[in-house]
Amino acid sequence: MKRIQYKRILLKISGEVLTGEKEYGIDPLVIKRIAEEIKEVKSLGIEIAIVIGGGNIFRGVAASSKGMDRATADYMGMLATVLNGLALQDALEKMGVHTRVQTAIEMREIAEPYIRRKAIRHLEKGRVVIFAAGTGNPYFTTDTTASLRAMEIGAEVILKATKVDGVYDKDPMLHKGAKRFDELTYLEVLKKGIKVMDTTAISLCMDNQIPIIVFNLKQKGNIKKIVRGQKVGTKVRG
């Protein structure tokens, strides 16, 4: 059996992944499959924190580009991440995985407020912690939230789950000859404007030397392979 490479991980799940074959919303089968994979990885003794996006329900940037006030649009996007977080919590709890949702905007009736030390304690007790509502501030993406929370909880790596198997120089959905990168440095990502995470998120990871692994969540077993040190997707580091 291969040794475990990472003990505490931050899994970033984009909202778009949750739609499955639909155009928007949450596909229960996709949520269930993701929960099964998380449970399997947790059984290895891995401490798992999750930041979840809301693009499958509402995208603040898209709405603001059509005339909506940016701050209002971003707050609506944060609420969308809470819906996704609760859906994932429900799927995990039904599988017997103890889970906590913490939100950056207080809504005590449905989730805990984000408290760093409490989040770390949950992880130490073997609970999966889902961070929702972004940073609680407009103009910051859930990518930035993932970088920030990873640093706060002492995560060893950020696993960015997407619909493609890594980072490409062009959109592989549109360009057949797109080249996939096995590894990139933070500076290469910033200088070339490669779309991995937004520049704020990449800068935070670079300053604190937290590696990012971009991988395809649709391919079963990828998270387990990563935590066991196998090469999957694209790795971004210093």
Supply database-style keywords.
238 residues, alpha/beta, Carbamate kinase, nine-stranded mixed beta sheet, two-stranded antiparallel ribbon, 38% helix, 19% strand, globular
How does this structure look, described?
With 238 residues, the chain is of the alpha/beta class. The chain has a single domain (8-237), classed as Carbamate kinase, CATH 3.40.1160.10. The chain contains 8 helices and 11 strands. The chain has helices spanning 28-42, 60-65, 70-94, 116-124, 142-153, 186-192, 199-208, 222-227, and strands at 8-13, 47-52, 99-103, 112-113, 128-132, 157-162, 167-168, 180-181, 183-185, 212-216, 234-237. The strands form 2 sheets. A 9-stranded mixed sheet has the order 4-3-5-2-1-6-10-11-9, with helices on both faces. Strands 7-8 form a two-stranded antiparallel ribbon. Helix 1 (28-42) packs across helix 3 and helix 5 (142-153) packs parallel to helix 7 (199-208). The radius of gyration is 17 Å and the shape is globular.
| Secondary structure category | alpha/beta
Q: Terminal Cα separation, in Å?
A: 29 Å
Given the C-alpha coordinates, what overall shape results?
globular
Number of domains: 1
Indicate the low-confidence ranges by residue numbers: none
Examine the secondary-structure arrangement and name the CATH architecture.
3-Layer(aba) Sandwich
Strand content: 15-25%
Helix content: 25-40%
For the report, how would you describe the main beta sheet? 9 strands, mixed
In DSSP terms, counting alpha (H) and pi (I) runs of 4 or more, how many helices?
Answer: 8
